[in-house]
Amino acid sequence: MSRSHITYPTATEVIKAGLAKAAELKTGAAIVITEGTGEIVAVASTDGVNPRGWRGGLAKASAAAGLGISTQMFLEKRLTQDEVLWKALSNNPERMFVPGGIPFKVNGQTVGAVGVSGGHYDDDVKVAQAVVDAFDALIKSE
To answer: Is this prediction's pTM over 0.85?
Structure first.
């Protein structure tokens, strides 16, 4: 793990926590880990998820990485308050402003993000949070 970006070994390690959480919740999940730029580092999914489900995960991760906050927080605090902004941003197919995208932070800086799609968005958030918790634990152990 570099402190400036997410490596493949780190991504594949923390993705395991998301797959375990999805199994616990008995939900489908496509999990995408990106760098801070929104570029894909790793993807994993549970059995039965739509083969294109990763696209929703990528769109959520890209939004979270770009914003530096979760897609849920952005939706609740900003997007639902501004109809013009909502219309402008919702027309961008590369970003998805639905709960399930959370950035990875190191020393306050966004170094990547996780996006989860495939279940109800409440479950997507729980799976994404499990990945972020695993990332934070990994950083603390260094």
So the answer is: yes
- The strand ranges marked E within the chain are 30-35, 40-45, 101-106, 109-117
- The CATH number of the domain holding residue 92 is 3.30.450.150
Query: DSSP characters for 35-47?
Result: ETTS-EEEEEE-T
Count other C-beta atoms under 10 Å from residue 115's C-beta.
Answer: 33
Query: How are strands ordered across the β-sheet holding 109-117?
Result: 40-45, 30-35, 109-117, 101-106
Place of tokens 């999914």: 45
CA distance 105 to 119: 25
Which residue has 């590369």 as its token pair? 94
For residue range 45-73, list pLDDT tens digits in order.
999 999 888 999 999 999 999 889 898 88
CB of 56 within 8 A of CB of 117? yes
116 falls within a domain = yes
